[in-house]
Amino acid sequence: MTQTQRSGGPRQGAAAQMTGTASFNRTRATCLSTSHGENHIGESGIMVVTEVEVAFVGALLHQAPDGAAALLKLVSEEDIADPRLRVVLGLARACVDQGVAPDPAAVFAVARSSAAVNGEHQLKVLSKCLADVYTSSVVPASAWFYAGQVLWAAWRRRLIQTGDRLRLVAQTSAEDRLDEAVAEEFAACQTMRDRLAVFAGGAA
User: Fold this and answer.
1) In the prediction, which pLDDT does 3 show?
2) How far is CA 149 from CA 28, 154, 156, 199, in A?
3) Residue 133: enclosing H or E segment and its boundaries?
4) Exposed site from 30, 61, 103, 116, fewest CB < 10 Å?
5) Residue 48 DSSP code
6) What pLDDT, on the 0 to 100 scale, is given for residue 89?
7) Which residues make beta-bridge pairs with 47?
8) Given this model, what pLDDT does residue 29 score?
9) Closest CA to 99 of 57, 65, 59, 64
10) Residue 79: its pLDDT value, please?
11) Dihedral angle at the C-alpha atoms of 85, 197, 189, 76, nearest 10 degrees?
12) d(Cα 1, Cα 157) in Å, to the nearest integer?
């Protein structure tokens, strides 16, 4: 499973999820043109899920509002490497913020009514993405397991990014910037690790 995207803590509030309609739309237009990674169609014609992010988001779309809200407190958009799934996760969060179960119809309705996704083509892409993810052969009851795997993958990506960033800083920054950069990166890593500890405690 190849995943390369920055990870971070959960955002606070619906406003933090959609910072500016124009920027929001541009992001989704780009993201929705990106295909999923490691899924394939089995001999039965059913999509076989080999990417845990797809499994998690698919299971999320089957949850009632309370269950979805609990999962969304644990996993943020920044934890998801697949850009299309980040779009779906953000829209599902908007549904839950309104007390609505994030099923595909509700997610699509929110995308269209809020102008979060614009244009016939992008809406068609979103519709197909929702259908693919929702009908994947995931087990909704395993959503918490999938969430934990998403967090562990995000933690690994964060460590890789820390190494890359510190190497760049070491090569290009002034001496008085080095300690500050190290402290910032390690603080971000600790935040991510603390979130994993919370998950492990809750799952125990």
Assistant:
1) 38
2) 25, 9, 11, 11
3) helix 120-134
4) 30
5) E
6) 96
7) 41
8) 43
9) 65
10) 92
11) 20
12) 12
Contacts for 117-123: CB closer than 8 Å, 24+ residues apart = 117/25, 117/28, 117/29, 117/32, 117/87, 117/91, 118/25, 118/29, 119/29, 122/28, 122/29, 122/32
Alpha-helical regions (H) of 98-119: 104-113
Q: What is the pLDDT of residues 73-112, one digit of tens each?
A: 999 999 998 889 999 999 999 999 999 999 999 999 999 9
- pTM for the model: 0.71
Q: Which residues of the chain fall below pLDDT 50?
A: 1-31, 33-35, 37-38, 40-49, 204
Q: What is the pLDDT of residue 161?
A: 87
The long-range contacts involving 93-101, CB below 8 angstroms and separated by at least 24 positions, are 93/14, 93/17, 94/14, 94/17, 94/18, 95/65, 95/68, 96/65, 96/68, 96/69, 96/72, 97/14, 99/65, 100/65, 101/63, 101/64, 101/65, 101/68
Beta strand 47-49 with 39-41 is antiparallel
Q: How many Å apart are CA 27 and CA 137, to the nearest integer? A: 28
What was the pLDDT predicted at 155? Answer: 87
* H/E stretch holding 121: helix 120-134
Enumerate helices (H) and strands (E) in the chain, giving the number of each: 9, 2
